[in-house]
Amino acid sequence: MKAFFLVLLICSLVHGNNQAKISINFRDITGFFSTITTCQMVVNPMLRRGSPIHDNAFKALKDLDSQMVRMAMWFPYPHLSVAELTPPTGNPRCGTASEVFGKVPHLRIFCGTPNGIIQSIDFASFGTPEGSCGQFRKSSCDAASSMKIVEQNCLGRNTCLIPVSRDVFGDPCVNVDKRLFVQATCSNAVNTTSWDFQYMDPIVNDFMDATGNVNLMPKGRDVVASFSTSPTWMWNTDQAVPVPSDPNQVDWSYEQGTELRDFSLQDIAMYYKRLFQWYTQGGFTDEYGVYHKSGYYYEFSHWEIGNEVEDEHDMTVQYYTQVYDAVVEQLMQVDPKMKYVGMALENHYEWNWYEYFLNPKNHKANIPLGNFQLEDFNLKFQLETICRLDLVSFLRNFQRKNKCFVLSSFLSIRRPIFERGNSNHPNPRQVFSANKD
């Protein structure tokens, strides 16, 4: 579908009493504005096979023939959205937590089995340790009391809570943000994982079939895969978060914690890498080297990193950007051509998020942000045209003196989509360009 491209020109070019005069000829056609139909499917029990609306729901999705569809596997139903609901059970048992000003957070170390006992502390450092589980290392900022305090709190127990505070460990380096890293060994440990796709697969299969993306067949319509809910056990909580045994039971309290237990962010990055491999590469190798075969080779057009992230885990834009980079870095190893969706904010008027996240300088050098530049508020990027943020508010925030913003007057913003490099794939998004006058 094509429509006339109506251009809205908003400028701030006022210098003293001199005001710029603008003349627009609305009879001239400067270009065309192409639109497509989009929709999303949010997972819930009524989409499971055997429900009274299952067949008609997926038939409607097929008949609608939307050119881009978002598949949202969301947290209120953990069994339908998370593929590893409990942590691996073997050794070592690791955890990290950062000190928080004005609070005393706790690091929880727990054995993977109910009859396991913490029999040794293999690493403990309060200060600025580095590394990932199994490869922790101390820095010059290290509290000498670290090992003694952790052992006193944890040895002989199945689960322990360690306060993360300089008031407990002492201050090994003033005016520096500190964190606690711990690695332990438990008795009766068995190397097992909880990977389980029995509830997720049928919904994903039916969704992909309805969008013309039959397994091992040529690609159909564009699909934005949004497995936005990460396992809650990956986040620091004072106690284990229970999971309903009934996959149909809603659980609005499942997502908890504001900081991941793994400071290196590799646990969550590898979770999504394995999930991605399950649906696109035929299977994956788990944490203990066991291969899990799926037989799926689906083609997603986009992969979304998180959903409403500023609310669901109370992330700051700085922390979310680190998580985004860690996950994308792993997925790029599997499919260098994959395109990514970022932010998906809930409130949509948090301008600091746009200004920080959309700046390539705040990302790792190898992370693709596609055809995008941000320099002194000169913007050029692509936007998905699903309305949740209105254009006028966006313009008002980003308008600056001596800047002009040229936009389609009927373009609204849902969330940015970032593409890696140039793509010959039909572009279902519209281009927003704002440059210095």
- Main pleated sheet: 11 strands, mixed
Which ranges are low-confidence, i.e. pLDDT below 50, for 5 or more consecutive residues? 1-15, 370-388, 400-437
State the helix count: 10
Annotation, overall tally of beta strands: 20
Our measurement of the CA-to-CA distance between the termini, rounded to an integer number of angstroms, reads 32 Å
Percent helix:
10-25%
The SS-based structural class is alpha+beta
Share of β-strand residues: 15-25%
The radius of gyration computed from the alpha-carbon positions, rounded to a whole number of angstroms, is 25 Å
Tell me the series of helices and strands, N- to C-terminal.
EEEEHEHEEEHEHEHEHEEEHHEHEEHEEE
- Any idea what the shape is? globular
Please state the average pLDDT score: 83
Model description:
The protein is of the alpha+beta class and 437 residues long. It has helices at residues 54-64, 78-81, 146-154, 166-169, 200-210, 266-280, 309-312, 317-334, 351-357, 391-398; strands at 2-4, 7-11, 32-34, 38-42, 68-72, 93-98, 106-110, 118-127, 159-163, 179-186, 222-226, 283-285, 291-293, 302-304, 339-341, 373-375, 378-389, 403-408, 413-418, 430-436. Strands 2, 4, 5, 11, 14, 15, 16, 17, 18, 19 and 20 form an eleven-stranded mixed sheet that branches. Strands 6-10-8 form a three-stranded antiparallel sheet. The protein has a two-stranded antiparallel ribbon with strand order 1-3. Helix 1 (54-64) runs parallel beside helix 5 and helix 6 crosses helix 8.
